[in-house]
Amino acid sequence: MPPWEGLHNADELRTQIVALSADKRNFLIDPPNGTEFAFDMAVMFPIAKTIMAEDSRLSEMRFQLVPKQYRL
To answer: Closest Cα partner for 22 from 63, 49, 60, 53?
Structure first.
């Protein structure tokens, strides 16, 4: 399920999240100093697949930034 599903402002959140894939820098720059970030592949993988199905630009960006030897 997409992360915006079921939220009161789902359309606005979807628009904002999908807009992130328009700029490659969003995937390459470090987060601001002091940002706390924890990543759990088991949790994030299904979310990433769902969002890539919703956002063709994100799917294309994935193949620009990640070696094309493995396909989801």
So the answer is: 60
Q: Tens digits of per-residue pLDDT, 16-67?
A: 999 999 999 998 888 889 998 888 999 989 988 998 898 989 988 888 888 7
Buried b (16+ CB within 10 A) or exposed e, 32-71: eeeeeeeeeeeeeeeeeeebbeebeebeebbeeeeeeeee
Position 30 scores a pLDDT of 87
Residue 23 is encoded by which pair of tokens? 């700029």
Q: Which CATH architecture has domain 10-65?
A: Orthogonal Bundle (1.10)
Rg (CA), the chain: 13
